[in-house]
Write a structure and sequence with these properties.
Helix content is 40%, strand content 17%. By secondary structure, the chain is of the alpha/beta class. The strands form 2 sheets. An 8-stranded mixed beta sheet has the order 3-4-2-5-1-6-7-8, sandwiched between helices. It has a two-stranded antiparallel sheet with strand order 9-10. A hairpin with a 5-residue loop joins strand 3 and strand 4.
Length: 292
């Protein structure tokens, strides 16, 4: 019986650490013996940089602009520990839809059956999550990915982007779209940050896959053009990514989330804002003086 390919999409607000998280998951999965492809779906085309010593690779759209016909094998590049790296790319600045690269690249790989040819275990789509429309919604809308995960910190705009993604998943769930696997809580160091993302996950009826702390090890690794798994394999941070990768590898059941409406989300955020102000002021809570 042939093995089953598992396709995963990881979304997140720009700058939240989505590509860092994705690349470390890919590295950890490859380290565990899996055949992995990382499919960068951000117009910046930098998803796979830390898998290739900081080097950019030609994108699918750039290659198509140069040639009328492209063999998909020509836009697949080898990265750390044999990971297959692809960057969908985007249009020239100010011209066309930024999601077009995803649509074009996915169609190309499907037509040429590259996933089957490479006998992959995982394809991980690294997708910009600030907007979930057009091309950016393709992995969700068309059910290309079976499981979707969102990277979020406790910051409001990050949570706002994750909540919007959940709305997209909810919308397309009745027409065969991908479902939500959970939240990857990133840059979680302070106790209150964990409380905020925990409450957000509970409100939207999903789960926290892993708490990833903010760590200088990540910055040091990326300055070398490497993932933490490669640059600091014995670090505590690398073990967090390994634990997360194992949970994703074992994950089988995703679900339809229950995103908050905008007014509800704003009220929820305001409540947390007031609680943090109270903590900072040292207000007595539950008989004890709280402080951060």
């Amino acid at each position: 019986m042939p093995k089953k390919l598992k396709q995963i999409a990881i979304y997140g607000k720009g700058g939240i650490g989505k590509s860092t998280t994705t690349s470390n998951i890919s590295a950890a999965l490859s380290e565990a013996g899996h055949k992995v492809m990382q499919f960068g779906c951000d117009p910046k085309s930098d998803s796979t940089n830390t898998l290739r010593k900081g080097k950019y690779i030609p994108t699918v759209l750039d290659t198509l602009r140069e040639k009328s016909k492209v063999d998909a094998r020509d836009v697949v590049y080898e990265g750390y520990n044999g990971i297959y790296c692809v960057e969908a790319g985007g249009p020239a600045p100010g011209v066309g839809c930024a999601g077009r690269g995803i649509i074009t690249a996915v169609q190309l790989f499907r037509q040429q059956k590259i996933f089957d040819e490479l006998d992959l275990d995982f394809v991980i789509y690294d997708v910009l999550g600030d907007v979930v429309c057009g091309g950016f919604a393709v992995p969700v809308r068309e059910g290309i990915a079976e499981h979707v995960f969102t990277v979020s910190s406790s910051d409001f705009m990050s949570i706002y982007a994750s909540n919007n993604l959940m709305k997209g998943i909810q919308k397309y769930s009745n027409v065969g779209g991908a479902l939500l696997g959970g939240v990857i809580a990133n840059s979680i160091n302070e106790g209150y940050a964990k409380d905020i993302v925990d409450d957000f996950a509970a409100r939207t009826r999903t789960r926290i896959m892993e708490y990833v702390p903010r760590s200088v090890t990540v910055a040091q690794s990326e300055l070398q053009g490497k993932t933490t798994i490669e640059a600091a394999p014995d670090s505590a941070q690398a073990n967090v990514y390994r634990r997360l990768a194992q949970k994703i590898a074992e994950h089988e059941k995703s679900a339809i989330p229950a995103p908050m409406e905008i007014n509800e989300l704003r009220e929820w955020a305001a409540k947390w804002g007031n609680e943090l102000l109270a903590l900072q002021a040292g207000v007595v809570v539950g008989g004890e003086t709280a402080g951060i």
